[in-house]
Amino acid sequence: MDIVVSGIRPTGNLHLGNYFGAVKNFIKMQNEHKCYFFIADYHSLTTHPTPADLHGNVKNVLVNFLAAGLDPEKATLYIQSDIPEVTELYLLLNMNAYLGELERVASFKEKVRTQPDNINAGLLTYPTLMAADVLIHKAAKVPVGKDQEQHLEMMRNFANRFNRMYKVEYFPAPVAFNFGEELIKIPGLDGSTKMSKSEGDYNAIYLSDEPEVIRKKIMRAVTDAGPTVENQPKPQPVENLFQLMKVLSTTDTYEHFNNLYNTCQIRYGDLKKQLAEDVIVFTHPFREKIKELFVNDNYLHKVASLGAEKARESTSRTIREVREIIGFKVF
Ligand code: TRP
Q1: Are 168 and 325 in contact (CB under 8 A)?
Q2: Which CATH number, 3.40.50.450, 3.40.50.620, 3.40.50.720, 3.30.470.20, labels domain 3-184+297-326?
C-alpha cells in the first residue's frame, strides 16, 4: 500500500473526460492505497479570483468529486488552505529552491508569455508549493498526467536536496502514478480528440448538465455529409461520436449504428438522439447527487473537517520532524 497524494485545481464542474480520466482512477485508488486528495485552493490564488468565485469553485469541485464517488471515509479528502503546515513546508522548501530552476519550468515560461501583466511570485514558486503538498505526507506516488512531469521532477529535486543538505533519509522522492492502458479517453463534441473545458461551451458534457443541455450539445456536435462508400473509415468528428457511444451506450446500440454507417444508411440525427438519451441516463445519478449535496452545507462542512483532521495526523508530524532536522529547537 502506497501513500498517494493528488491536488485538484478548483476550476469548476467535472465533465465526462475528467470522470473517465482522473476521477475514476481516484475512486479505484482509494480502495487500494492510503490516498490524500485535496482541493488546491492556495494554488488558484495565482490568478486572483474574487472571494465569491474562490469559494464557489472550491464548493463545486468538492460537490462534484463527492457525487462522482470519492469516499471521505476511505480517502483523506481535504481543502489545502485548511492545513497551515503545507504553507510552512512551502516556506522552508523555498529557501532551497533556486530562481534559475524555477524560471526554467515550462508552465511558468508559458505564463510569462500568455499573461505578462501578472507574473507573481506565487506563479514562480508554484512547484515548491506543489512539492510541499506531496512531501508533507511523505508520499511515494502522485497520480497526475504528463503535463505535470516537470513539476514532479522538481519535487524529487527538492526532496533529495533537503536530504543531502541535512544528511538524512527523510523525504522519499515521489514518482508519477501511471494508470497505463486503463485510461479511457473521452473525445470532444467539436471534433477534437479530447474533451476539454477550455474549448468552449459546446465541447464538453458536465456531470451536472441538465437533460435539455445535454441534448442541445450533442445535437450540435460536429459530423460530416455521411459515408458514400461501404465500410469507409470514419473521419475524426464522427469517430468521436461512436467512441462516446462505445463508452456510454450498450454494445447493441453501438453495433446497430456502426452497421448503419458501414452500409451508408446512417442518419446522424438518429445517432445523436440515441447518444443524448444514453448520456442522460448515465449522468442521471451524478446530476441528482450534485443537486442534493450542493444545498447540504452541513454535510460539506463535516466532510471538510474530517478531511482536515485526518490530513493533519501526517502533516503535523512531518512539520515537527522537519523543524527538528533543520535545527529549530524547542526551548
Ligand atoms: N498542479 C496540479 C494541476 O495543475 C494540481 C496540484 C497542485 C497537484 N498540487 C498538487 C497535483 C500536488 C498533484 C500533487 O493539476
Answers
A1: yes
A2: 3.40.50.620
What spacing in Å lies between the alpha carbon of 127 and ligand 1's midpoint? 9
What distance in Å separates the CA atoms of residue 282 and residue 247, rounded to the nearest whole number? 10
The pTM for the full model equals 0.93
Q: In whole angstroms, how far apart are CA 164 and each of 51, 157, 193?
A: 41, 10, 44
* CA 326 vs CA 88, 129, 299, 316: distances in Å: 13, 19, 40, 15
Task: For residues 274-292, give the mean pLDDT.
Answer: 98
State the Cα–Cα distance between residues 307 and 290, nearest whole angstrom. Answer: 19
Q: Is the CB of 220 inside a 6 Å radius of any atom of ligand 1? A: no
**Is there a contact between 20 and 184 (Cβ–Cβ < 8 Å)?**
yes
Instruction: Extract the runs of DSSP E, i.e. beta strands, from the chain.
Output: 3-8, 34-39, 76-79, 141-142, 175-176
Q: How far is CA 75 from the centre of its chain?
A: 15
Ligand 1 atom with the smallest distance to the CA of 9 is 5
Question: Does the structural domain 197-291 have CATH classification 1.10.240.10?
Answer: yes
Take residue 318 and report the three cell numbers written for it.
Answer: 512531518
At residue 180 the predicted structure's pLDDT band, cuts being 50, 70 and 90, is low
